């Protein structure tokens, strides 16, 4: 490939769906915007691969170049500025704050939940240190003057992917896709209402339940959403499909790489299977996750993406590249496989004493019946996202949690207010 893997996703079509991550950290005290502005500009020095802007090179293609302008921190306004715009100094990231809330807006082309979290953690460590005049004990948070980890700027290539024959091949049972919901949201503008709710759980409650049912955090939420939809979807729907992203960087020897190296896990549940007890469903789901995250399996999907990127090198012109990406992207193009709903879990990361200053932390992205699961300290947070203003899905999900005896609190709905890209 001629360019960084972080560059090619810039050709994705954002007409209907934003390719941006918006993380929300709610602090326990009101945010001091002036202190935050200093902290984020100290922290960004630790992440040179995020301090970039986009230009067009002599081949008429997007390239990333260093951007030494200040990272912008704004008070919350009525409109969210675009990534790459003059309002945010050309950066593909910026911050907003409102009361106790800090919003980290960053291009999904550069990273996903796993890649952006270290930058956020560094920023919040520095913010706490500057605001309170202390150095919070957090050995696993990268500090602004820490050197890059070995391989942190490495990227995958076709040569680095395992060449073993896949030990398993997912064969779709053609799960139901929320076609009518998507059509209503996309074709009738006044019906679209991108929103999210935040559910807070004790980590101990979720972990104990998962361990007691041969499950995991990700598997638990995959099963819980499937059981919620089983209550709502008509009988003619025979299969409900869960989908989850998997970052395989550790499996191919670049565990510290910041960029997204994602395959997708699919778990199809028949309506009869959803009548099984939670332990059987947990075993089935966890087993599918193990099989589909095997490097021989997940690498096949990533290989398709890298082959697409190589083909984009041979296409001249931004619009032609966009057209080719739209038609051939393995994750969204004409041959893509989709689930009924999505659950992504970034995994537990050690925030140390910084966790004492944070009330909640969630990741907000585009999608319908999309759940992003995060963890800080002794809490697990679920961001439950929809494109329509309806309560039937969240109500069914709550009913399942209550029947399983899982305590939680919930806030929202809140508007997503996702940014988009403004590119040259």
Overview of the molecule:
By secondary structure, the protein is α+β, with helices and mostly antiparallel strands. The protein has nine helices and 14 strands. Helix 1 crosses helix 2 (113-132), helix 5 (217-230) crosses helix 6 and helix 5 packs across helix 9. It starts with 19 loop residues before the first strand and ends in a 9-residue tail after the last strand.
List the helices and strands and how they pair.
Layout: E1 20-27, H1 33-43, E2 52-56, E3 62-66, E4 73-75, E5 93-98, E6 101-107, H2 113-132, H3 179-187, E7 192-202, H4 203-212, H5 217-230, E8 239-247, E9 262-270, H6 278-292, H7 295-313, H8 318-328, E10 341-345, E11 358-364, E12 370-376, E13 379-388, H9 392-403, E14 409-415
Parallel strand pairs: 4-5, 8-10, 10-12
Antiparallel strand pairs: 1-6, 1-11, 2-3, 5-6, 7-13, 7-14, 8-9, 12-13
Helix pairs in contact: 1-2, 5-6, 5-9
Q: Tell me the strand percentage band.
A: 15-25%
In terms of quaternary structure, the protein is: single chain
Q: What string gives the helices and strands in order?
A: EHEEEEEHHEHHEEHHHEEEEHE
Q: What profile does the largest beta sheet have? A: 7 strands, mixed
Distance between the termini: 22 Å
Main β-sheet, spatial strand arrangement: 9-8-10-12-13-7-14
Global outline: globular
Percent range for helical residues?
25-40%
- Average pLDDT number: 95
Q: Low-confidence stretches at least 5 residues in length (pLDDT < 50)? A: none
Structural class: alpha+beta
Give the count of helical stretches.
9
Radius of gyration: 21 Å
Number of strands: 14
């Amino acid at each position: 490939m001629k360019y960084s893997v972080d560059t090619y996703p810039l050709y994705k079509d954002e007409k209907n769906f934003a390719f941006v991550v918006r993380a929300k950290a709610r602090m326990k005290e009101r945010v001091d915007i002036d202190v935050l502005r200093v902290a984020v500009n100290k922290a960004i020095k630790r992440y040179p691969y995020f301090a970039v802007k986009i230009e067009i090179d002599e081949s008429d293609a997007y390239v990333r170049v260093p951007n030494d302008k200040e990272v912008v921190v704004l008070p919350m306004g009525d409109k969210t500025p675009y990534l790459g715009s003059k309002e945010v100094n050309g950066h593909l990231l910026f911050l907003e704050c409102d009361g106790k809330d800090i919003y980290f807006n960053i291009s999904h082309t550069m990273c996903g939940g796993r890649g952006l979290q270290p930058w956020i953690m560094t920023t919040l460590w520095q913010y706490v240190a500057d605001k309170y005049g202390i150095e919070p004990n957090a050995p696993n948070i990268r500090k602004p003057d820490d050197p890059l980890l070995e391989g942190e700027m490495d990227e995958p290539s076709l040569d680095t992917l395992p060449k073993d024959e896949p030990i398993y091949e997912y064969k779709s049972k053609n799960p139901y896709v929320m076609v009518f919901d998507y059509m209503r949201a996309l074709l009738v503008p006044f019906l679209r209402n991108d929103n999210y709710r935040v559910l807070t759980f004790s980590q101990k409650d979720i972990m104990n339940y998962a361990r007691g049912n041969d499950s995991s955090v990700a598997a638990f939420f995959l099963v819980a959403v499937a059981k919620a939809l089983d209550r709502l979807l008509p009988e003619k729907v025979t299969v409900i499909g869960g989908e989850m992203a998997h970052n395989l960087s550790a499996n191919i020897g670049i565990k510290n790489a910041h960029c997204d190296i994602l395959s997708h896990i699919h778990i199809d549940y028949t309506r009869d299977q959803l009548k099984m007890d939670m332990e059987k469903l947990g075993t089935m789901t966890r087993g599918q996750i193990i099989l589909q995250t095997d490097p021989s399996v997940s690498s096949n999907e990533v290989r398709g993406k890298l082959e697409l990127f190589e083909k984009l090198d041979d296409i001249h012109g931004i619009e032609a590249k966009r057209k080719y990406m739209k038609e051939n992207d393995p994750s969204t193009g004409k041959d893509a496989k989709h689930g009924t709903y999505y659950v992504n879990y970034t995994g537990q990361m050690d925030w140390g004493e910084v966790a004492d200053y944070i009330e909640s932390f969630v990741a907000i992205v585009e999608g319908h019946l999309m759940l992003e699961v995060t963890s800080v300290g002794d809490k697990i947070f679920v961001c439950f996202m929809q494109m329509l203003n309806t309560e039937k899905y969240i109500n069914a999900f709550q009913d399942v949690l209550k029947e399983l005896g899982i305590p939680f609190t919930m806030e929202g709905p809140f508007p997503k207010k996702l940014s988009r890209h403004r590119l040259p």
